[in-house]
Amino acid sequence: MTNIVILTGAGISAESGLGTFRAEDGLWAEHRVEDVATPEGFVKDPALVHRFYNMRRSESTNASSNAAHDALARLEADLVGDVTVVTQNVDDLHERGGSQSIIHMHGSLAGSLCAACEHRWPSPFETAPSDDCPSCGRPQTRPDIVWFGEMPYQMDRIFGLIQEADIFAAIGTSGNVYPAAGFAHEARRSGAHTVELNLEPSLVVNDFVETRFGPATETVPIWVNELLRTGG
Ligand code: BV8
User: Fold this and answer.
1) Mutate to test the pocket of ligand 1, among 8, 16, 21 (most ligand atoms within 8 A of CB)
2) What is the mean pLDDT of residues 140-157?
3) Which of 54, 78, 107, 108 is spaced 20 to 30 A from 61 at the CA atom?
4) Does the active-site annotation cover 94?
């Protein structure tokens, strides 16, 4: 019985055509983080923030899962043990790849949240500042996304899983953003085998005992096949 926790970032969705954040042509190259991914930015210009996430939702809807997402779903289905994907991504490509046990620690484009009463509901394809909350009726709709300075979701559950993990993997994440960037250190301290799968070394590559470099659609299926062959 092998417990595996897999942290994913924008890099696992890159080959599905979704932009990463910190590449030259990435999302942060076109939009200042402060303007579109902070509570202050939302208060200042909610229409801009809604437009930013409407664009992300449209791109995500038009994208497909890739061989990396699909391989993780196969691992969860076929491995004797528990496989949990903790994703920083707000797209639904892990769901579309077939994974079931997924934690969206930074929220999801699929959800809307009321900034006034904290009611949550499935997000329409397009949202606007004038959208009324279905519960309290106030026009305080925001994307159910965790912005900088906000607490990521399900942190207690994530730390519990990390403490029990036999293997902790990080796929396609640069190690820029905390607390996610600190997970590998925590996993290693708890005795897990840590492996980084990325195009290039992340900022926290030294927290991993194993590294596999290359595009996720190549490295992840190979890694998964080995795990299924050896039982993890
Ligand atoms: C919080 C949602 C506390 C929106 C995002 C400790 C130290 C320093 C700073 C902090 C700290 N603790 C908190 C902070 C502040 C801050 C932070 O970390 N700042 C950084 C920038 C210094 N953290 C926070 O604010 C977090 N909140 O800690 O709250 C708190 C306590 C009490 C009470 C209240 C609060 C919240 C962070 C969440 C922010 N939201 N996104 C959206 O998606 O629009 S973050 C955003 O960047 C993404 O969600 C993603 O999670 C994150 C990291 O990006 P990556 O996924 O890694 O993507 P990136 O482009 O950087 O890298 C891509 C990687 O893929 C690269 O390595 C590349 O090589 C690789 N790649 C590319 N192509 C491929 C590939 N790999 C494989 N195959 C390929 N084909």
Assistant:
1) 21
2) 97
3) 78
4) no
Report the 10 Å Cβ neighbour count for 225: 13
Could you tell me the CATH number of the domain that includes residue 13?
3.40.50.1220
Q: Are residues 118 and 192 in the same domain?
A: no
Which of 49, 47, 30 has the alpha carbon at shortest distance from 39? 49
Q: In the listed set 126, 145, 164, which residue is the last one of a domain according to the structure?
A: 145
Q: Residue 230 pLDDT more than 80?
A: yes
Tell me the best of 148, 153, 183 to mutate to test the pocket of ligand 1, counting ligand atoms within 8 Å of each CB and taking the most: 148
- Amino acid occupying residue 191: G
3-state secondary structure of 46: helix
Quote the pTM value.
Answer: 0.96
Query: Residues 106, 119, 185, 193: which is the catalytic one?
Result: 106
Report the domain count for the chain.
2
As a whole-number percent, the residues of the chain with pLDDT over 70 amount to 99
* Residue linked to tokens 């905390």: 178
- Answer yes or no: is the C-beta of 19 below 6 A from any ligand 1 atom: no
Same-domain check for residues 117 and 204: no
